[in-house]
Design goal:
Layout: H1 3-31, H2 43-56, H3 67-85, H4 106-119, H5 122-143, H6 152-177, H7 180-183, H8 186-200, H9 223-230, H10 232-244, H11 246-258, H12 265-296, H13 326-338, H14 343-350
């Protein structure tokens, strides 16, 4: 078992647990109730996941899902909800210390800085937890050992996507929840936090850069399966934008401007940005469908209406038993040989590479 892999797996999960405990501590300070320490028990799921991962996966993650990030969301999101719901009770006071530096030793100055951080500005703590939460999602995904089926190039692409996604999510929460009219409406706060929580569900999944894989289809009627296996990463990115992030964000902002009459320059700008992104994603989806339709026209007609993924027509499994009749065997061999010079071969070269486990 690789020692570096184990250290990365354990260290990353300890960072998650530490940040979650800090969030619970802030909740107990704001609510002035020690009973909220029970929220720290949610880290048990993360600890159990770490033990199982070390035992059965030798510290490495899964191909499609990051359970560590998912359980980290479970442990930290309730604390952030409580901090945002009780945002109005948080104070931000500026405590000015005496400027007689000659009479203050370095140790006392350090104590003063710590006290200022703890009690000086509670709203700054809430914003800081939001920011560090999103940063830890990106850094944690980077530090977690990658599983089988995902390359480092795909991981770097995923991290770049996470950076842009995290920035959009932070802008959405700050630009909406900082409005006094919204803070005074408890239903609006709950709705915005619900959309924010929904948008966080994209982080545990790694489907944005990994194609499912092109498997033979049993019938030409299963065209959606063929489309999904060929463009799964692109379709997942479009689905995230339309149904998880830009689409819900656009709906919330339109409701704020249209029904609640909350209008400012930043809200109008980000609404226009969401409209533009949704339109571009729909245009991209149309382009993919047209390209898929054009590629189907190059497929040869199969006997009995059978259709296969073009990229796997020539990759028959050599371990399969031969046909009972010599005529069928010769037919298969002829088909495999003729594919080398067919338009489908060039079509497969233009198709994005597929990562298989």
């Amino acid at each position: 078992m690789d020692l570096i892999v184990i250290l990365n797996a354990v260290f990353t999960r300890l960072l998650f647990v530490l940040h979650s405990i800090i969030g619970v501590w802030r909740v107990t300070e704001i609510k002035n109730d020690r009973l909220y320490w029970w929220l720290a028990l949610l880290n048990i799921f993360l600890c159990l996941e770490m033990i199982l991962t070390l035992k059965f996966k030798k510290g490495r993650g899964l191909k499609w899902l990051s359970p560590a990030i998912f359980f980290y969301l479970i442990s930290i999101v309730p604390s952030l909800w409580l901090l945002e719901v009780n945002y109005g009770t948080q104070l931000c006071t500026n405590q000015n210390s005496p400027q007689n530096d000659t009479d203050i030793i370095l140790f006392m100055k350090s104590i003063e800085i710590v006290n200022t951080l703890v009690t000086g500005c509670e709203t700054a703590w809430t914003l800081g937890l939001h920011q560090t939460f999103l940063l830890l999602l990106i850094i944690g995904k980077w530090l977690l050992p990658i599983g089988a089926g995902i390359t480092r190039d795909q991981l770097s692409q995923l991290l770049l996507l996470f950076v842009g996604t995290a920035a959009d999510i932070l802008e959405f929460t700050r630009e909406t929840l900082e409005q006094d009219d919204i803070r005074s409406n408890r239903v609006l706060v709950y709705s915005i936090l619900a959309v924010w929580t929904w948008s966080m569900l994209q982080f545990p999944l790694d489907l944005a850069v990994i194609n499912i894989g092109c498997h033979p289809a049993s019938s030409t009627k299963r065209l959606p399966c063929l489309l999904l296996c060929r463009y799964s990463a692109d379709l997942w990115n479009i689905g995230i934008s339309l149904f998880i992030q830009d689409g819900p964000f656009l709906i919330v902002r339109l409701i704020l401007m249209g029904h609640f009459k909350v209008i400012n320059h930043m809200l109008v700008f980000f609404t226009a940005k969401n409209v533009l992104v949704v339109m571009l994603q729909l245009y991209r989806l149309i382009v993919l469908l047209l390209d898929f339709r054009a590629s189907l026209q190059h497929q040869p007609d199969r006997k009995g209406g059978e259709g296969y993924c073009p990229c796997e027509l020539g990759d028959r499994n050599p371990s399969l038993p031969p046909s009972d009749s010599d005529g069928e065997t010769k037919e298969h061999n002829t088909t495999a040989i003729s594919l080398e010079d067919s338009p489908i071969s060039s079509e497969c070269q233009r198709t994005p590479s597929v990562v298989t486990s």
